[in-house]
Batch of 3 targets.
Target 1
Amino acid sequence: ICKLKGIYVPFSCIIETKDASLHKDGGYGVMSQKAYIWDLDGTLVNSYAKIVPAVRGHLMELGVDYSEEYIREIALKSSVGKLLDQVGPMIGKDPELLKEEFEVRNDREIVGIEPMPHAKEVLKRLTRRGDLCFIYTHRGASCYTIVDETGLRPYFTEIVTSLEGFPRKPAPEGILYLVEKYKLDRSRSEERFSRN
C-alpha cells in the first residue's frame, strides 16, 4: 500500500531514479525522482465488479456454472486466462479461442469501470512533483479504453500491456523493459502487489 499525504492506494512497484527524469519537452535530465509501476485491474481501477459477472455470463453460455466467488478467487490469484485454460479442455474448445471471445465480450462490458478511490488524486500528486508513472498489466487493448474512460491516461509516461508480448507477471521482463528504457535504479526498488 502506498501512503501519500494520508491516502492509501495499492501499487505494483516503486523504483527510484536519479539519472533519467523525463521532462515535458521529451528530453532527459538529471533529477532525483521515483518511478511508480502500477498494475491496472484491482489497483488503479475497480474492474472486478465488471469482469467477474462478464466471465460468469460467458461461461454460463458455454454450459459451465462457476460461482462468482470461485471466478473472483481464480482471477485474483492468477488470471481469467488461467481459468479459461482450465475450461477449454472441459468443453472441448481451444482455450486461446475462448480468450479471444472473452476479450471481445469484455471490451463491450467494461463500460462504467471506475477508478479506485483516490487513484486519480494520487497520480496527479505524483506526476506534479515530477515522478514517473507507468502501467504494467496483463490486460490487452482494453487497457487503453479503460484509462481513457476513467481519465487516468494523462498521468502515465508509458503503458505496457499484453500486446507487447512480455511473459506474465511475476516474470520480470516487462518491468526490466521499463527499467532499461527509462534508466531506473533497480537497486532502490520496493515492490507492493495488489493481489496480496
Target 2
Amino acid sequence: KSLIRSRSFGQKITDVRYLQQAIITHVVRGAEKLRQEGLVAGVLSVGISTSRHAPNRSYGRASVELSKPSNDSFVLSKIAADLFRQCYKSHDEKGEPYQYTKAGVTFYDLQKDDSGTSSFFDFLNTDKSEVMIALDKINRKFGSNAVVLASQGTPDKLRGMKAANKKDKAEWSMKRNHMSPRYTTVWDEVLKVKIG
C-alpha cells in the first residue's frame, strides 16, 4: 500500500523556499490522511521535477526507510526536508536555473497504527500524539490550514485568503482558472440573486 500527495505548480518555481514549502505541505496533508485512516508509514519518498519539455530537465527523488513507522507531521516534515535537500539542484552545468513544475511525496509500507504495542520508551512520545490530535481537531473545526507548521509558509497564503481585493495564494499553488464554482460547499461562492 502507498499514499501519494503530488501537485503541478501554477507557475515555474526556482526559489528553493517555495519548493520546500510545497514538499512540507504535502507531507503534513499526507500525515493527516494517514492519521484519519489509522495508518503509519514505514518509508517516505520525496520527488521534484521540471517540465519534461524543458531544455534543462531535472528530476530528483530521495527515499528513506523510517526507523519507526510514523504519521507524526513534525517527524515526517523534518525527514522530508532532509530528503528534499538531497534531491534539489538549483541549476544545470551551464549555470541556468532549473524551473521546477511539480513536487510530491509518497508514503510506502503503510500499516495499522499500533502505537500501543511499540517499545517501552514510547511513553516519551505521548505528548506529540496529543499535539497531532489537537492539530487535526483545530484544522477540522476552522478549516484546512487553520494551523500550519512554520516550514509550510503562512496560513493565509495556504488558504488563499483575499488580501487587498486580490487573491493571495502560495507561489507554488496550482492554477485554478477553469475550476468549477463550489456553490454547495463554499459560502463565499454561493450565487447571489438580486430581485427587482
Target 3
Amino acid sequence: EELTAILRRIQESLDEEIEQKRDVSLLRENYRRSLPILREQFLKDLVSHQMDGKTVNDRLEQYDIPLAGAKKWISIAVKAEISEVSGELIPISVMQILEENLKPYCRFSLFSFSGAADAEIAGIVAIDENNSQTSMIDILSDICKEIRKILMIPVTIGIGHSRTELGLICESFRSALDALGYCAIVGSGSTIYIND
C-alpha cells in the first residue's frame, strides 16, 4: 500500500508537470498567433501618439519589426480610390504591391489603418545610409503608377516629414495625413509631400 501511494503521488506530480508544460505551450502558441495583431496595434499606437524611445525599441525587438537604428524615419498614409465594385480586397493588393516594391530598397513596416482621412494603409520607412528620402519619394511615385496600371484605380500616398526619433513618428504621420488632404487640390493617383 505504501509503495502504491508513493507511485500514485509520483504519477500525480508527473501529470501536473505535463499539464503545466502544455499550458506553457498553449500560451506560446496563443502568443504566436496573436503576434500579428499585437504588432499592428503597436504600430497604430506609434503613429497615433508620442512614445518614449526605450518603449519603442523594446517593442520593435519584441515584435520583430525591422525599423531600429535608422538615421531617420518617414511615415506614409495610403489612400486608394475604392468603388463599391472594386471591393475590400483592393487594400490587400495595394499593400502587397507596396511591399514588393519597397522590399529591395529599404526597411519598412506597413499596416492597415482605417478611419483616418480615408487612409487604408499606413507605413513607416527607415532611411539609412543606403537610401535617401528623395529616392524613396521617387519609388513611391512609381508604385502609384504601377498600382494604377495593375489594379486600374488611383492610389495617393501622403508622405510625412522625416523624424530622427522614432518615438516622434506620430508627427510625421500627421503630416502624411495632412498631405492626403491636398488630394482634392492636386488630384489623386500620385505622391503628395507637404514640402512640394
